[in-house]
Amino acid sequence: MPEGDPVMKAVGYYPGCSLHGGGRELDMSLRAVMSAAGLELREIDDWNCCGATAAHALNHDLGVALPYRVLALAEAQGMVEVLAPCASCFSRLKGTAIRLARSVALAAKMREVTGLEYRGPVTVLSVVEFVNRLLADGLAGKLTSPLAGLKVAAYYGCLLSRGEDIVEGDHENPDGMTAAIRASGAEPVEWNYATECCGGGFSMSLTEAVVDLSEAVLEDARAAGADAVVTGCPMCHSNLDMRQLAMRSRGRGPCAMPVVYLTELVGLAAGLDPKALGLDRHFVDALGLVSRPSCRPRRPA
Amino acid sequence: MSQAKTARLSDAILEATGINVAECYQCGKCTAGCPMARWMDLSPNQVMRLVQVGDEAATDELLRSGAIWACAGCLTCTARCPKELDPAAVMDVLREMAYERGTVPAARKRILAFHRAFLKVVEKTGRMSEVPLTARYKLGSGDLASDLGLGPRMLVRGKLPLLPKRIRGRREVKRMFAACRKGIR
User: Fold this and answer.
1) Which residues of A fall within a CB distance of 8 Å from B99?
2) pTM higher than 0.90 for the full model?
3) Do B74 and A158 touch (CB under 8 A)?
4) Is B113 helix (H, G, I), strand (E, B) or coil?
């Protein structure tokens, strides 16, 4: 697709709060991959937080109202689709869009709460769906630096595998990332923890659970022979990558399992600079993956 | 008395979620797959059972339990329930009720402190930012010592913006918070 493609113009970008902080490598790698595809992301102007887990944990209405404002803004700005790369944002936005489409009463209540009009539908896309679309639209032909020999564990966690009507396909055996992994030249391993929870939002408030659950995920990836775990969720990434420090300080966990975003994997296969993808910002070294002779990407001129 | 309570608790669940808890036949699949069950004082199937019982004692036990706070919202139970009952949504309703009643057990107060800190930052700025969130959480929970080494490590990786982003529509967001607190139902 050429730059300024009218179809792409109608896709709004909802980075979500994590992608400006702890999850910025997902934002960086997504933008880098987009630019390699000759496309640009158009951010929703003045977007707010989706409320994540906290809003629906304490106030159901707020858990709907916050995503409602985002959908209303996107619609007012002429977007018919919204890309929400964070799995939690994706689940909240799409779940809200579905509920609004099904309940006139809820839509009326939200109009009253927010003072904003949303008619719908606005389609919400996950990072997995979006990457698959980019590959189908020509990006696959630009993956000239295949990561041959790299074995990865595709980790979907909760919100890229579950949520009725939110995530399509088999909740127990999701395969949305398989095509992108293979297109990148890597090999997905068979493993058991692809859809197990990492502990999600309890990183600070119940750290023990996050350390235990994330450790189990990483150990299974290691046992299955993976060189790295691939994820699409900034929360999972933070728990699996950053919390390896806590595992190590407890004398546990696999020694240094790199955790990378799907967009980083695809970006590497497109020959992009690892640093432009944010690969040097992870807690567990992931640059080692690209210095392997079998999968060294070309440096940009 | 007991009958009236029964009606109220399961009715509240039914009204909020459309779930008829009477359909639960206690197969235990929700508990078998629950990653957080180890950190719960009531297992998910026990939570469903107590909602069915729904008398004063059962309601009290539920709303004082740590289980409803330890639910991670991972949706494993919901995806696997053979009766399609969505226990995760039941947990949400119970948690909201417990929050309103102020019956959060001491062992899980940190989880509430985190949710509250998160929402306060969003209410004030329109977005979540790690620095004010962590500061508010630590003050609210008294959990001052943990993770002190992580801040500098995140900073050098460019993962900790020091100036929180503030959206233009802050007033709009504040009004939304106020309206939701009043519970326009």
Assistant:
1) 58
2) yes
3) yes
4) helix
pLDDT of the residue at A292? 64
Cβ-count burial A253-292 (b if 16+ within 10 Å, e if not): bbeebbbbbbbbbbbbbbbbbbebbbbebbbbebeebbee
Of A3-7, A150-154, B66-70, least confident by mean pLDDT is A3-7
Q: State percent of chain A over pLDDT 90.
A: 87
Q: Which chain A residues contact residue B141 at CB under 8 A?
A: 205
Cβ–Cβ < 8 Å for A73, A221: no
Q: Which chain B residue is nearest to residue A114, measuring alpha carbons?
A: B176
Among the candidates B84, B104, B124, a domain finishes at B104
Residue B18: name the closest of A110, A120, A60, A160 by CA: A60
Confidence label for A255 from pLDDT (cuts 50, 70 and 90): confident
Say if residue A247's pLDDT is above 80. yes
Answer yes or no: is pLDDT of A299 > 90.
Answer: no
* Residue A200 to chain B, least CA–CA distance (Å): 6
* Residue B11 amino acid letter: D
Other beta carbons less than 10 A from residue B37's beta carbon: 18
| B180 contact residues in A (CB cutoff 8 A) | 59, 61-62, 65, 113
On the question of pLDDT at B185 being above 50, the answer is: no
| Residue A158 belongs to domain with CATH number | 3.40.50.11810
Q: Supply the CATH number for residue A108's domain.
A: 1.20.1050.140
Q: Three-state DSSP class for A197?
A: coil
Q: Which residue of A has its CA nearest to B131?
A: A21
State the complex-level ipTM. Answer: 0.94
Residues B119, A51: C-beta atoms closer than 8 Å: yes
Number of domains in chain A: 2
Among B104, B130, B161, give the residue marking a domain's end.
Answer: B104
Kindly state whether residues B91 and B155 are assigned to the same domain: no
Cα four-point dihedral sign A22, A94, A154, A33 = negative
Report how many domains make up chain B. 2
Tell me the nearest-neighbour CA distance from B23 into chain A, angstroms: 19
Q: Do B159 and B175 have their domain in common?
A: yes
Q: Decide: A125 and A81 in contact? Cβ < 8 Å.
A: yes
Domain that holds residue A181: 145-294
Q: Which of A127, A158, A183 is the last residue of a domain?
A: A127
Are A246 and A282 part of one and the same domain? yes
Q: Is residue A65 part of a domain?
A: yes
Q: B68 is in which domain, residue-wise? A: 2-104
Please identify among residues 81-140 of chain B the ones whose CB lies closer than 8 Å to any CB of chain A. 92-93, 95-96, 99, 110-116, 118-119, 122, 126-130, 134, 137
Instruction: For residue A200, give the nearest of B72, B172, B173 by CB distance.
Output: B72
